[in-house]
């Protein structure tokens, strides 16, 4: 999908051959992206990464998602991570990225999409609410460090 979906940005759905685009966008991630890591992620079935690119082709945001299937529930999309470059925030980039991932989920037959964030991350909560997301009352995220 290389369609203009918001003024001045293009949403690009990365494929196996786009590892170089992902490594070039490392500044948007928590840590550097290696070529091997990019290839591994992009090669896995059910793993999705969308880049928002500005008019100059520079990555200004991304969303990643992973399809998860359970035998008694079907398949759902886990919105793994969402980020937008500071100078591109509050322009609808995050909303367009989330919407594009939701469309991939619908096309793939997912019955729902979910994510987690900190309770005080107002920017993320606003983006999720603006795209139709709702907070699930009483939920808590539990994390295991397996390293």
Looking at the chains present, what oligomeric state does this protein adopt? single chain
Tally of strands: 6
- Per DSSP, the total helix count is 4
Structural class: alpha+beta
Please give the CATH architecture: 3-Layer(aba) Sandwich
Broad shape: globular
Strand order of the largest sheet: 1-2-3-4-5-6
Number of folding domains? 1
- Helicity, in percent? 25-40%
Q: Helix-strand pattern, N to C?
A: EEHHEEEHEH
Query: What is CATH's topology name?
Result: Aminopeptidase
CATH class equals Alpha Beta
Pfam families: Acetyltransf_1 (PF00583)
Domain N-acetyltransferase: 9-147
InterPro entries: Acyl_CoA_acyltransferase, Bact_Acetyltransf, GNAT_dom
GO molecular function: acyltransferase activity, transferring groups other than amino-acyl groups
